[in-house]
Write a structure and sequence with these properties.
115 residues, mainly alpha, 4 helices
Length: 115
Amino acid sequence: MRRTLRRSPPGYAAVLTADASPAPATTGVLHPLADVVRDIAVAWHLPVLSPPVLVGWALIATGAATAVWWASRIATGRADRPPALQVAGRIGLVAAVVLGAAHLVPGVTTIVSRG
């Protein structure tokens, strides 16, 4: 299979740069500001929460299962997953979701009760 580089028609790049929209620059400025405002609002409403350590451990287990699978995939060249590793990864992910939801319920009820 031979690859060739195709050239754009003359003036094509000039048209793209001349008619460029300011949307990417605006988005690049507004999204980080919105992230900061959101983080401040969440921290303001949820001061009682402690870091979810158990959720972190469950995510670490899931990440470790994924890393082991990718390492074995690279080493062997086979894309199939070992069943035990797949089960371990899924259990870690389900545990992270359940523990995260259980961790957030008191905070959400606090926000809802404040009105």
